[in-house]
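Quick start: read one record
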Amino acid sequence: MSQDYYILKTLNMEDENIHFYKEFVNEEFINGKRCLVFKAYLTYIPEYCPKCGTCYDEKIKKHGFKNSLIKVPSVSKLNTYLSLNKQRYHCHHCNKTFTCATNIVNYGCNISNNTKHSISFDLTKKVSEKDISINNNVSTNTVERVIDSYFELDSKVYKNTLPQALSFDEFKSVKSADGAMSFQVCNAKNRKIIDIVEDRKLNNLMKYFSRYSRQSRMNVKIIVIDMYTPYISLIKTMFPNASIVIDKFHLIELISRSLNKTRIKLMKKDKDNYNKLKRYWKNILKPRFELNSSSWKKYPCFKNLTTEQDIVDYLVSLDSEFEETYQIYQDLLYAFQNNNLSVLETTLNTKYNNISEYMKTSIKTLKGYLEYIKNTFTTSYHNGYVEGNNNFIKVLKRIAFGFRSFTRFKARIMICKGLITPKQKEVENLAFSTS
């Protein structure tokens, strides 16, 4: 094999018309950074003049070279360039000049297609656009242009059909968005994001789902949500055949928050046991059967040997209101974890005189959603993966130090999650350049 073949393989390029000089690489300082510069020339006999279309003949003559400094993916962590001398021709038919073209770079561009493919690959990771630009030796504006040109952002994400099971949830949006919270809809079966809507307000969601045909909306049978009331209005209007399922995580979170607020209230009142109530809050929120009652150990804040269960019993007995609230919490927690509807209904319908106002509010809320909680007990669908998406979005936004534009924010989420894929033309170019 020739020297040109091995160098082109090293740089991941495919163009037999590129030939490297004898001394093909040098170290140079460009913009104050040590870089590798590969030196080559591009020449071939054109089939016709691209200006006037005349077939190649003796009147189309060589007319020197035009140099281009092309950015290519780094080699050994050094910014790398290809100093390419392109053969020029002069056409005496139209009296114009033209330059040889190559597939490694687009016309009028000094950033190689391989660099753009590298940028698009980095965009699928949880990396800021600034870091991507530094790693690929380009500007942040170039990274944004790659997003716009490489991916079909203007294509409609929504389709003509909807899956039978959906999941709704929201996440903190950016300042440029119309609302504080944005909305995501996911397929509850394969756990993939279907689309992201800028605002979760009811009228905006009504407009969004009206894009789908009535038949596709009638096909939806299950929708998993949290306890956000406008979602229920939306589902009853747009998805009349769908059963509403309340995510179990939010149900447990509701009663846990009520018990925790009750604990904090007691903690502020009982200064003698302040540290104990503060330190062992996780034990108080644990299910009763998970507490260790056989292992006697020395615990901080307690002088004598004791067990986890004894610690909780001591803390709960400090206040009658806290004790009864704790018992209700344990009953509700047991009902949710074991899908026991009878225990849940009994606990909710019992009259309590000595429980905290926080738990009273939670019981009232649960009674209002009892019809949908029954569906929770009879299905295995949940929003756990949707909450994972929310965490991913938070991490992505934090790494990027925020996003100014919601469109750019949504683009990064969809690219990372594979919701939008590269244009077909770019895929073909990538396959050609790596073949």
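The two ends are 17 Å apart (CA to CA).
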